[in-house]
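The data are quoted verbatim here:
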Amino acid sequence: MSHNSFGHLFRVTTFGESHGPAIGCVVDGCPPLIPLAEAEIQAELDRRRPGQSRFTTQRQEPDQVRIVSGVFAEAGGEQVTTGTSIGLMIDNVDQRSKDYSQISESYRPGHADFTYDAKYGVRDYRGGGRSSARETAMRVAAGAIARKVVPGLRVRGALVQMGPHRIDRANWDWDEVGRNPFFCPDAKAAALFEDYLDGVRKSGSSIGAVLEIVAEGVPAGLGAPIYGKLDAEIAAALMSINAVKGVEIGDGFAAAELSGEQNADEMRAGNDGAPRFLSNHAGGILGGISTGQPVVARFAVKPTSSILSPRATVTRAGAETEIVTKGRHDPCVGIRAVPVGEAMVACVLADHYLRHRGQIG
């Protein structure tokens, strides 16, 4: 019972380890006749790829994806999905397992080393095996497909806080997200993050971050009122990302400070006859069901646990010791989590869209 799959009708199963020969995934439930080219998936993977700035791990993985099943092109026609399972593969080409040889018998504080050993009686100390964030590349690949399932869907993400430093929302510019290495929508904050993270990186430490995902074009009616709540499944999907320690929908915890009058998203009649909301404190979801407004979710990513500062720990045999984690690591793993968060939200929305479509025939 390793739980390597998520989703119901749009279902994703990932496989592979950080230092194995390859990672991959199988996407089940994608409808047929959707145009799909490797280049479209690659474009999303390139946003997550390591080694693109001094602020991320310098592991040089091209993350070149191959579609190995589930698509077909008629003579002279474009490649489309067939309705069968879509297989995706990425070769690992820049593993340095020797970087981890000195920690083979010691548990890294903040990592899953101890818990994996407690559960399975064996652990892959080379980068964490399945617990490595390397696995999230396949989620991004699956998310590229998910985005094409829901007509008109647009899912975007941004880094809105690094350590104690927050963006100024008055400066929010989606175009700015692609202009800096932090996926930050505030140019002034991005400049501050650069100096701040340089200091963190040079000290051999790490820092956490908060990311925000906004999904537009979500039709009203997705989700279910009890155990299939859209917000519950988005929260579960985001919490499944490595290093995530908290999720909120809409105003989230800030809603506890609002009055009922402030928090209620009042409505008026829209020109199309549908309700027009005057605010979106609920983050586009009420009673577990989408309202048709943008779906907004935020998640907190803890500091990277692999740091150069000596930390107290124990060995597998129970001896007390200290550990320093060498190798190539992100000083702020939250940066590359932006496309991963986008992908997970897209996968949940694709799954709920297909479930809703099945309900209404």
Q: What stands out?
A: The first helix runs from residue 38 to 48.
